[in-house]
Design a protein that fits this description.
The protein is mainly alpha-helical and about 290 residues long. It has eleven helices and no strands.
């Protein structure tokens, strides 16, 4: 099971990297943010509806049947790509692979990916432990927590679309700054509001919207930097930022666990806000260059 999980994770990273870079090449440059938002819209909708549906069906059918259903969904995706996806290749040669790898060492691309890591570290420092926080601190009924996950997922889908529109209208730098400031405010607000169920419903929805509004903004920003400084390594640059998202999720979970052990569940909100604020500082320094 661990090996299967690892293998599916490899496919997940490759797909999102290639899909996001291909999407930006299928549309005009001023629509890059919305194009990335469409790609990640599938992910956010799957998070919003796939998890609760899978959990429900898991209580009716066997786990083998559920996994077979997932495999069938993947096969449908393969057929859709094979027959409906336009060819958006860069025309690169195998010798360009080394160039693509070297592009990952570009300080501008690494700096952009660092902002992604910080934003997702802040968000998932708290969200990784949202269930015990809502149950043990907020006092929310355990049965209602699954509904909260649905609220988070729906808000994430909406935030993803809005993030793409904002990116197209204001540009990636301003969009990323808006998201980082929003994350810092929402995470900081959770600390005093953690005992109020209505307030937490609103704040968790806002957290979901901002976390996934960050996706098209940050991805478009990295791809834009790659287009200016490493035009033959767009997919590699997109993959670097996908690694940033996943690294932030992992680091946020790790930091959150340490914070809980030292200061308690509520402190994850403050440390999460701190990571977002560091992201704001790093972005400000990058924009000043």
């Amino acid at each position: 099971m661990l090996a299967a999980r690892f293998g599916s994770g490899l496919g997940h990273g490759v797909f999102l990297a290639v899909a996001s870079s291909a999407a930006t090449r299928l549309v005009a440059p001023e629509r890059a943010g919305s194009a990335v938002a469409v790609v990640f819209g599938g992910l956010t909708l799957a998070l919003a509806f796939g998890v609760p549906i899978g959990t429900h069906l898991g209580g009716i059918w066997s786990w083998q049947t559920i996994f077979m259903g997932v495999a069938i969904c993947g096969a449908i995706g393969v057929l859709g790509l094979a027959f409906l996806m336009p060819n958006a290749r860069d025309g690169g040669e195998p010798k360009d692979a080394l160039h693509n790898l070297m592009a990952l060492l570009d300080r501008r691309l690494l700096g952009a990916a660092l902002i992604t890591v910080l934003a997702y570290t802040g968000s998932f420092c708290l969200f990784s432990y949202i269930s015990p926080l809502l149950i043990e601190v907020t006092g929310m009924n355990a049965a209602f927590v699954s509904t909260m996950m649905l609220v988070y997922g729906v808000a994430a889908a909406i935030g993803n679309i809005v993030g793409g529109r904002i990116t197209d209208r204001l540009g990636p730098d301003k969009a990323v700054m808006i998201v980082l400031i929003g994350l810092a405010i929402v995470l900081a607000a959770i600390w005093p509001a953690v005992h109020s169920v209505p307030a937490m419903v609103v704040l968790i929805a806002a957290l979901g919207a901002l976390t996934y509004a960050a996706v098209p903004a940050m991805q478009a920003r990295v791809i834009g930097i790659a287009e200016r400084h490493a035009p033959k390594a767009l997919a590699a640059a997109a993959g670097l930022n996908i690694a940033g998202f996943n690294s932030g999720i992992a680091l946020g979970s790790l930091v959150g666990g340490g914070v809980i052990g030292a200061f308690g569940l509520t402190a994850t909100a403050i440390f999460g806000a701190g990571a977002a604020i560091i992201g704001i500082v790093v972005l400000t320094l990058q924009r000043g260059k």
